[in-house]
Predict the structure.
Amino acid sequence: MTYMINARLEQGCPSLTLLDAATGEKRLHWRGDLNERSENEWRGLFKQLVLLSCADQLSQESVARLEHLNSGSVEPTELGLKQRLNEIRSAE
């Protein structure tokens, strides 16, 4: 997945927004606290970025696996996967 990244200062506070480049959907928004510049804030941002990356990776792998099943001898409807494939595609 490709993202547009908007990093800026808002009234002296760091701010970061990640948008899905294909849909324009906001995937992450983070704003630091002007009064508290703690390490926990940065850890929280890092955690959100890692989780977003993992979610995207899992989604891409699931779609690839399901498309592989769809092209092979296994009928996805027998496994109940066709509906899940459509759900994953619509979520992206």
Remarks:
- Residues 73-79 have pLDDT under 50 and may be disordered.
- The beta strands are 3-10, 13-20, 26-31.
